[in-house]
């Protein structure tokens, strides 16, 4: 009974999570009308008059609820012009196992699962390791007339793709629409990382009055933390950094970004004009924006210039998490780094490791790397210099090692191995460009092979086996639809080749080449044709059919 519980835990039932009148599953284009989508709020009466049917006639929420609202859409084709008809009806679920009320608070939003680590594994095993487990829900009062607390209304949180709203409109991310000219009507979608470039028409004499060239145009509006304007919680856009670019392309970072630099005319030049803006938005796991920053690239425009190219970028990061650069979504993009990592130490069982230590792989960006060639071609000087492996790019690099008779074999072999593989060679490679660390099945183990397995002697007075090359073969395939196939890595093999170093006379030296290479192999099966093979025709062509060619 509720009266036997703590009175502080008794709360009113939450507001419905889904307002079917605002829900539209066929609304795919931002700020544009989708054809035959009768629930699209961007469509006008003129648009509805051109529709032939409603692609989604009925919109409902959770089908397991006993009673719920349903939005019904239809077209009145007899009207002139045709009109859209909208009705909101009560729908009753006849099943005896329907849900009467959604009063379990923890089920009202998606909570990020706690990733097992060496410190909390025993605690999680004790809580979830049994045959069954349960979480004690809070007691809800089914009195729907009681006002809902502000924290219970989750409908005001941002969702994926929803335009980021400001106090007067939405956050603009200029981009080319039909031509390459900039359009300021492109809204930035929540959690949608974008990078655009476009051309802006300029006039040096009027550069101080062109809003798109001023920093204020991009930071003067505060961002709404949630989509509900009535809550009136705003986040100001702060200036993270300012980079100044000269006419010849040289860039320099300003030590202070507190002072706004507005465009002005100076000696037939327009200085402090915005050439690029990089937004960075920080949000919570429930879809609330808590921080916004902008990095600017300012430059000078000569009097002869009639237009300039501007670049814009926006990225999103969840609070208390470290951003990991992606190499595609979902498939790899040609030219982007191959992501890699290794299994963290200290996990009690293979099922428990979730690649929590990806950021500690062969470099800080969790990328597969190879030896980077230097101008001196000295292997000892090149130790530590690494180059990322770029998807679909076959690469080869190398260096030269000067060996004397006084060198010890085992330290020499270990040094060369470190030069070829790096300090921490990864154990796994991401199969997709956006594979997450917790998705264990999305990571492909690297198979390491050694061509020679002879033991390494202690000195160079007897035959010594040293590694001379590292060859990495990456096999990938086209995954998904034939219309838009996605690149997926299915196998990675790293082969170390050793060579026998013969005895050197005293006082003599020898130079040996050390090489590292990467080869990408497409193993996609060819698509089977949808038609049957054409029949062959057994005929004989005239002897002069190809004349004058033989």
From TrEMBL:
Coiled coil: none annotated. Residues 156-318, 328-522 form the Tectonic-1-3 domain. One of its GO terms (cellular component) is MKS complex. The keyword Plastid does not apply. GO terms for biological process: cilium assembly; protein localization to ciliary transition zone. The keyword Glycoprotein applies. Residues 14-121 form the Tectonic-1-3 N-terminal domain. Keywords: Cilium biogenesis/degradation, Glycoprotein, Signal. Part of the tectonic-like complex (also named B9 complex). Belongs to the tectonic family. PANTHER family: TECTONIC FAMILY MEMBER, TECTONIC-1. This is TECT1 protein. It comes from Erithacus rubecula (European robin).
């Amino acid at each position: 009974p509720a009266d036997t519980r703590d009175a502080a835990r008794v709360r009113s039932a939450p507001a419905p999570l889904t307002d079917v009148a605002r829900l539209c599953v066929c609304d795919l284009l931002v700020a544009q009308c989708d054809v035959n989508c009768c629930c699209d709020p961007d469509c006008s009466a003129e648009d509805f008059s051109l529709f032939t049917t409603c692609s989604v006639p009925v919109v409902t929420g959770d089908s397991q609820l006993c009673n719920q609202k349903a939005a019904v859409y239809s077209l009145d084709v007899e009207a002139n012009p045709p009109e859209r008809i909208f009705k909101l009806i009560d729908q009753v679920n006849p099943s005896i196992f329907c849900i009467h009320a959604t009063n379990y608070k923890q089920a009202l939003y998606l909570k990020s699962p706690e990733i097992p680590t060496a410190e909390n594994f025993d605690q999680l095993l004790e809580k979830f390791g049994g045959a069954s487990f349960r979480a004690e829900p809070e007691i809800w009062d089914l009195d729907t007339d009681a006002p809902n607390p502000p924290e219970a209304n989750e409908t005001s949180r941002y969702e994926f793709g929803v335009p980021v709203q400001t106090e007067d409109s939405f956050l603009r991310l200029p981009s080319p629409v039909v031509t390459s000219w900039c359009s300021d009507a492109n809204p930035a979608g929540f959690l949608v990382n974008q990078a655009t470039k476009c051309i802006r028409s300029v006039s040096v004499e009027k550069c101080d009055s062109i809003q798109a060239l001023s920093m204020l145009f991009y930071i003067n509006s505060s961002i709404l933390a949630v989509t509900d304007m009535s809550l009136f919680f705003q986040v100001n856009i702060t200036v993270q950094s300012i980079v100044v670019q000269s006419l010849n392309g040289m860039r320099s970072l300003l030590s202070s970004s507190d002072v706004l630099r507005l465009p002005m005319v100076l000696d037939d030049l327009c200085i402090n004009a915005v050439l690029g803006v990089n937004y960075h938005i920080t949000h919570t796991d429930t879809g609330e924006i808590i921080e916004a920053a902008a990095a600017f690239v300012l430059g000078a425009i000569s009097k002869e210039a009639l237009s300039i190219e501007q670049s814009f970028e926006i990225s999103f990061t969840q609070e208390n998490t470290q951003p990991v650069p992606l190499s595609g979504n979902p498939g790899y993009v040609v030219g982007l780094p191959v992501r890699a990592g290794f299994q963290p130490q200290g996990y009690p069982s293979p099922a428990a490791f979730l690649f929590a230590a990806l950021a500690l792989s062969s470099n800080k960006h969790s990328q597969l790397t190879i030896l980077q060639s230097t101008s001196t071609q000295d292997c000892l000087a090149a130790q530590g210099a690494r180059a990322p492996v770029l998807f679909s790019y076959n690469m080869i690099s190398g260096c030269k090692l000067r060996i004397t008779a006084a060198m010890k074999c085992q330290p020499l072999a270990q040094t060369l191995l470190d030069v070829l593989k790096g300090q921490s060679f990864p154990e796994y490679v991401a199969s997709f460009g956006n594979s997450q660390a917790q998705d264990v099945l999305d990571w492909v183990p690297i198979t390491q092979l050694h061509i020679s397995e002879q033991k390494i002697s202690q000195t160079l007075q007897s035959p010594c086996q040293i590694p001379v090359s590292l060859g990495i073969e990456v096999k990938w395939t086209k995954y998904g639809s034939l219309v838009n196939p996605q690149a997926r890595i299915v196998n990675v093999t790293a082969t170390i080749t050793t060579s026998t170093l013969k005895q050197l006379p005293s006082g003599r030296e020898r130079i040996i080449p050390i090489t590292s290479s990467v080869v990408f192999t497409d193993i996609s099966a060819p698509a089977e044709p949808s038609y049957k093979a054409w029949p062959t025709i057994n005929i004989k062509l005239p002897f002069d059919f190809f004349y004058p060619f033989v």
